[in-house]
Amino acid sequence: MKYPAVLGFADILPELDRFDTIIDARSESEYALDHIPGAISCPVLNDEERVRVGTLYKQVGAFEAKKLGAPLVAANVARHIETLFADKPREWKPLVYCWRGGNRSGSMAHILARIGWPVVQLDGGYKAYRAHVAAALGDPPPVDFRVVCGTTGSGKSRLLETLDRVGAQVLDLERLAAHRGSVLGHLPHEPQPTQKMFESQIWDRLRRFDPARPVFVESESKKVGNLRVPDAVMERMRAAPCISVSLSRPNRVRLLMEDYTHFCADPAALNGQLEHLVQLHGREKIDAWHRMANGGQMAELVDQLLVEHYDPAYLRSIDRNFVRYAQARVVELNDIAASDFDAVAKALHGA
């Protein structure tokens, strides 16, 4: 094969995991919005340089823009080779892509190929990849979902983490979304990814699952924080068999106190989130909850939130949204120790 080889995403996909490095040649802000999972950012033009070249292109013309861009591109590619790729052996096989046209990725791929590396350039760039992801999520693979259900604080997320650790297949949407899926679900110091990045991560997980084995997933709503679960994936989940996790309310309170230590340590932040519930529960109730938070009555507040907000909301939605919940397999957790989750996870994984 002559290098650089220019191939479409359909041709690249069967070999995607065999590339030694996937190189995103777009600017850093383009990369941050979304990229092929596992790709590294190696801008051929950074954000500031891209604006300069693009402005010149629009105001003066292509020739002057290319004359400005060429030395910038050459310097950036040289720096990447010196700092990231200088130790790569002759057989190192990278995949390079940019936005669509191929000018940025083509420049890098050409230089890498002239060195002697068997480089592949993605024809159509990120836009071709994104079109594939959108189509794939519109018609997901036939994954054998097992939906882990349970009231707030019953340990669904911990159970998924444990299932993953013991070797089961898991699609952890809350982890991918960096959100715990409720009004209090925002994770401190961890922003949510973009919608496109979220979808890329879901696509990447789905394509790797063995269709002959079950995939455990939590009974999410359509939105996880600000992110939306793709409709077709949601439909598959809602039609799947269910597992109902049972844990006593005192233990649920303990678990939530452990998982939400940031709110226990910062009542003002908790009260700010509780403001979102005024329309549901009224000013008087929210003010009472504020006083409990400010007075350090966190366990009592958590218990009231379960009884008066979370449990009724769960019971209203679960039967309506997950049609096989009535036939769910019930699993009981006696406590919230790691050994309790291990025992349930191993039983489910071995089933």
Walk me through what this model shows.
Strands 1-5-4-2-3 form a five-stranded parallel sheet. Strands 7-8-6-11-12 form a five-stranded parallel sheet, sandwiched between helices. Strands 9-10 form a two-stranded antiparallel sheet. The model has no long low-confidence stretch (mean pLDDT 94). The chain has 351 residues and is α/β, with parallel strands linked by helices. It has 16 helices and twelve strands.
Detail the topology: elements first, then pairings.
Layout: E1 5-7, H1 9-12, E2 21-24, H2 28-33, E3 40-41, H3 47-59, H4 62-85, E4 94-97, H5 103-115, E5 120-122, H6 125-138, E6 144-149, H7 156-165, E7 169-171, H8 173-177, H9 195-208, E8 214-218, E9 223-224, E10 227-228, H10 231-238, E11 242-246, H11 249-259, H12 261-264, H13 267-274, H14 278-294, H15 298-321, E12 329-332, H16 338-350
Parallel strand pairs: 1-5, 2-3, 2-4, 4-5, 6-8, 6-11, 7-8, 11-12
Antiparallel strand pairs: 9-10
Helix pairs in contact: 3-4, 4-5, 6-9, 7-16, 11-15, 13-14, 14-15
